């Protein structure tokens, strides 16, 4: 047996087409969704991600407002821009690309974004909504992982899911979303001794630790679903995830590739969240 591929590019195309349809309906009512994307500094990877977000807006019909600032921008200046965008009724989502330059307190910036416009789902209030299952914005990467798992048609009810990683933006919200889908959830991390003891019991493994080859074939139960959130570069400079694809694919039932798995879904769920932000304002 070899695992079937969960194709994040294909699922993204499908979901973006649905977003485009709903966006067109809102736009026809004079309520075109708008997303403000703020990039501070000159990190080359961030510039690529931001460009891809603007492109995704173009293909879905969402209006993008790209604001680029030098790394020397002060925190006060950035907070003032966010305040202006919070008060702009044509802007439904605000996104500040991470990481920010070191002199800026990222959490302060995130908390300055209105909860109604926090389409990254990064704020403390959004985290609370994710934890309680209240309506709000789910962080895009774990939200995308849930859609990828859903696309396999496998139910999560009663299954054991192991999340490797405990970041506030991926690992922790991922565990909460799996829990809400009635999985039994274990969170492991870089400090977990003998990771395989846990992952070998898992029906679903989500690897989000940021270290290549964290999950190998001998650590995976036959038939498990494996979701790879990692974006790393190997010794040859090639993009790779946290999962050793070659050894895990023959054991798993479903697996996401890197690239082309979770990555594109992150941007797709940003489009979904922005559309929903605009739809919510329409409802008053
Ligand atoms: N404000 C935010 N900042 C950051 C986020 C975020 O969700 N919001 N996430 C990451 C970067 N990111 C989006 O911003 C992101 C990372 C990777 C991909 C992606 O499509 N990856 C491709 C491979 C791309 C490549 O070739 O390098 C893939 O995995 O197929 C999309 C978005 C940090 N900052």
Task: Give the key terms.
41% helix; Rossmann fold; three-stranded parallel β-sheet; 11 strands; 284 residues; six-stranded parallel β-sheet; binds the ligand Nc1nc2c(c(=O)[nH]1)N[C@@H](CN(C=O)c1ccc(C(=O)N[C@@H](CCC(=O)O)C(=O)O)cc1)CN2; 10 helices; alpha/beta; 2 domains
Secondary-structure blueprint of this entry?
Blueprint: E1 4-5, H1 8-28, E2 34-40, H2 44-60, E3 63-69, H3 75-86, E4 93-96, H4 106-112, H5 124-132, H6 140-150, E5 160-164, H7 171-180, E6 184-188, H8 195-199, E7 204-207, E8 225-228, E9 232-233, E10 239-240, H9 245-248, E11 254-255, H10 262-282
Parallel strand pairs: 1-11, 2-3, 2-4, 5-6, 5-7, 7-8, 8-11
Antiparallel strand pairs: 9-10
Helix pairs in contact: 1-10, 2-10, 6-7, 6-10
Molecular shape: globular
- Looking at the overall shape, the CATH architecture of the largest domain is 3-Layer(aba) Sandwich
Largest sheet: 6 strands, parallel
Order of helices and strands: EHEHEHEHHHEHEHEEEEHEH
What's the CATH topology name of the largest domain?
Rossmann fold
The chain-level mean pLDDT equals: 97
Q: How would you describe the overall organization of this protein?
A:
It is built from ten helices and eleven strands. The chain has helices spanning about 10-30, 45-60, 75-85, 105-110, 125-130, 140-150, 170-180, 195-200, 245-250, 260-280, and strands spanning about 5, 35-40, 65-70, 95, 160-165, 185-190, 205, 225-230, 230-235, 240, 255. Helix 2 links the parallel strand 2 and strand 3. The chain has two domains: about 30-115, 3-Layer(aba) Sandwich (Rossmann fold), CATH 3.40.50; about 140-265, 3-Layer(aba) Sandwich (Rossmann fold). Helices cover about 40% and strands about 15% of the residues. Strands 1-11-8-7-5-6 form a six-stranded parallel beta sheet. Strands 3-2-4 form a three-stranded parallel beta sheet, sandwiched between helices. By secondary structure, it is of the alpha/beta class. It binds the ligand Nc1nc2c(c(=O)[nH]1)N[C@@H](CN(C=O)c1ccc(C(=O)N[C@@H](CCC(=O)O)C(=O)O)cc1)CN2. Ligand LMY7XDAE binds near residues 96, 140 and 259. The ligand Nc1nc2c(c(=O)[nH]1)N[C@@H](CN(C=O)c1ccc(C(=O)N[C@@H](CCC(=O)O)C(=O)O)cc1)CN2 binds near residues 97, 141 and 264.
